[in-house]
Amino acid sequence: MGKTPNAVKQKWNSANYTQIKAYIKPETASAFKSACAAAGTSMASELSAFMEEFANPRRDPLSLTKVKTLGDRRKTMSLVIKLLTELHGAEDAVVNNTPENLQGSAHYEMAEERLERLTGILEDADGLYDP
């Protein structure tokens, strides 16, 4: 009899990945699991992405910009607005995809607060460097 699909997958995972075990407080693990579900992502992919960025930090895109001239400042502001817009979209997704039973949680309320503040920041930045 051949190997089951599960056994084949386990063998492949063992050969290509390292399993890491961590002890996490139950409330932290539960909140993280809920946040991942609300964001439509897996806990493994979020932890993996965090570890990759932590171990191999990418260059900050703002460190690559010059701000000596008005044109430079306009380009930099455009990049800042783009990054803030991405953050706004991510927070909006968390707020809009949080299950109803978790909408009173501290995590949800913090996401709502971040969304509100990012909205204000984007409104303030709009037109700041327009000609």
Describe the structure concisely for a colleague.
This protein is an all-alpha fold and 131 residues long. It contains five helices and no strands.
Give an overview of the whole structure.
Helices cover 66% and strands 0% of the residues. It is an all-alpha fold and 131 residues long. It has one domain (24-125). The protein is extended. The N and C termini lie far apart (74 Å). The mean pLDDT is 87.
Strand count, sense and barrel status of the largest sheet are: none
| SSE order, one letter for each helix or strand | HHHHH
Which consecutive residue ranges, at least 5 long each, have pLDDT under 50?
none
Principal-axes geometry comes out as extended
Question: Which range does the strand content fall in?
Answer: under 5%
* Count of discrete domains: 1
Cα-based radius of gyration, to the nearest Å: 21 Å
Beta strands, count: 0
**Helix/strand class:** mainly alpha
Figure out the total of helices: 5
Rounded average pLDDT: 87
How much helical structure, as a percent, in the residues? 55-70%
- N/C terminus separation: 74 Å
